[in-house]
Here is the input.
Amino acid sequence: MKTAPAWVDRSLFPFESKWINIDGNELHYVDEGEGEIILFVHGTPEWSFGFRDQIRDLSKDYRCVAFDHLGFGLSDKPQFADYTVQAHTKRLAEFIRLKGLENITIVANDFGGGISLGYALADIGNVKSIVLFNTWLWSLKNDPHYSTPAKTIDSWLGRFLYLRFNAPVNMIMPAAFGDKRKLTKQIHSHYRNAVPDAASRVALYALANELMGASEWWQSLWERADVLAQRPMLILWGMKDKFVPAYEFEKWKKKFPHARAVPFEDAGHFVQEEKPEMSGLIRKFVGSQL
Here is the structure.
């Protein structure tokens, strides 16, 4: 029977770790509380640990489910798996099917936004509402803010920085905080320890290359995104995000004027880490639909 590694601090992440087999790999997840289902879908270099404060609070009244994508967190990290966003979306759909999750509220950020909305567009009838923060759902290839660094990522230097130096955790994550003091050594260690060596970082590097590599897929979702307007939507945004800038927040608001949009002026990319009180907004949002 699998158990969480000793480095997981249960004072921070006090949830029972569970695993489910999907396509021959063991994917880690937590499933806390009862009631309406809130499904948390993370980005990179994250895992379910990032949603710990929201799960701790919201599981008092809701069933909170968060799983780690293949190659991330406490899930298996095979060297030669399909780590495209399309494959992650298929695994998410299979997880939802196997767990029998129905009428779900999606909470997603970063790459998790496109992955979860890829599922939502395929099965909108099973999605009750949507909460997004600091994410995108369109091709980024014509925006030099993304395409320029993507060229470095897709090079020998980028591969070295990702696989050997753990750049997404050691460099990008600290730079992505609006208030770097909130990324304490204790918290940061839970992202470092999840990917301790080059072999464990393959999925992180593969997903980074999907910024450009999945451009057609991203754009195809955006062109069908009007379907999402059928569902209540809450958009939260860390306005100090250097990686998915505030002008993307405006793009979401223009596309979905019915959505409630809430900026956090002093937060960066990882809103769930910097603003644990966001769970109060989610609680009010989900509660308004009961």
